[in-house]
Amino acid sequence: MLDCDLHTHSRFFHRPPERLARYDPGGAWLNERVARRRGLDGLCVTNHDYFRPDTLDAPGGGFRLPGIEISSTAGHVLVVGPDPPERTVPGDLTPAEAVGLAHDHDCAAIMAHPFRNGSLPKSDAPFDAVELNGKHPEFRARVERLARRRDLPIVAGSDAHFPFEVGRASTRLDVDELTPGSVVAAIRDGRVEPVVRQGRVERLLGPLYHRIHRQKGHL
């Protein structure tokens, strides 16, 4: 079993990809340093509506794996795999279109933070998995019920925008080698196990995330 954080961002600010773009490779490197210290075997770089190959440590995959988080009309779709789309327009694709785009690119499509910032649980799009999001481990029972109802595996990711957040949630994958293709196959086969780490920092931040997202109207 190898342990991978499937949901990380290389910048802590929400700006168009062209603005402050020089930060992305460095941010991904910082995330990797934290992930290694926490004992992870890899992480996926899943920025909002863009993917940059230069955020990876190796063109064919390595510790950092490719991905993108698509902002669909009904919520966020996490896409991981060997060939994610490099750019999507926020709010342009329906969930079904986002999932179809992911599958066209040989990637897995995951229902990201299903009970925050959207209505993806109501969508009948053919997702490959449901995410237990690191910012909201309190939703675990709801995620489990949703996964049973949709007959989908559960994965987990930190949703880190700051390096210190990396690894608070991750996915154990039953694979011999961590590659984009092996991650996709494991997700689709259900050879995955969500992991949530509840250390002191996580316990302190949990209520803060909940309050912030509720104030934004995302919950």
Annotated CATH architecture: Alpha-Beta Barrel
Order of helices and strands: EHEEEHEEHEEHEH
Question: How many domains make up the coordinates?
Answer: 1
For the sheet with most strands, the description reads: 9 strands, mixed
Assign the CATH class: Alpha Beta
Q: Looking across the biggest beta sheet, what order are the strands in?
A: 7-6-5-4-3-2-1-8-9
What is the typical, i.e. mean, pLDDT?
A: 90
Task: Tell me the helix content.
Answer: 25-40%
Number of DSSP helices?
Answer: 5
Write down how many β-strands occur, each being a DSSP E stretch of 2 or more residues: 9
- The SS-based structural class is alpha/beta
- From the alpha-carbon coordinates, what is the Rg to the nearest angstrom? 15 Å
What is the CATH topology classification name?
Answer: TIM Barrel
Strand content: 15-25%
CATH-wise, what's the superfamily? Metal-dependent hydrolases
- First CA to last CA: what distance? 33 Å
Label the overall shape.
globular
Present the secondary structure layout.
Elements: E1 2-8, H1 23-37, E2 42-45, E3 64-72, E4 75-80, H2 95-104, E5 108-111, E6 129-133, H3 140-150, E7 154-157, E8 169-173, H4 180-189, E9 192-196, H5 200-215
Parallel strand pairs: 1-2, 2-3, 5-6, 6-7
Antiparallel strand pairs: 1-8, 3-4, 4-5, 8-9
Can you walk through the features of this model?
This protein is globular. The N and C termini lie far apart (33 Å). Helix content is 28%, strand content 22%. By secondary structure, the chain is an alpha/beta fold. It has helices at residues 23-37, 95-104, 140-150, 180-189, 200-215; strands at 2-8, 42-45, 64-72, 75-80, 108-111, 129-133, 154-157, 169-173, 192-196. The protein is built from five helices and nine strands, in the order βαβββαββαββαβα.
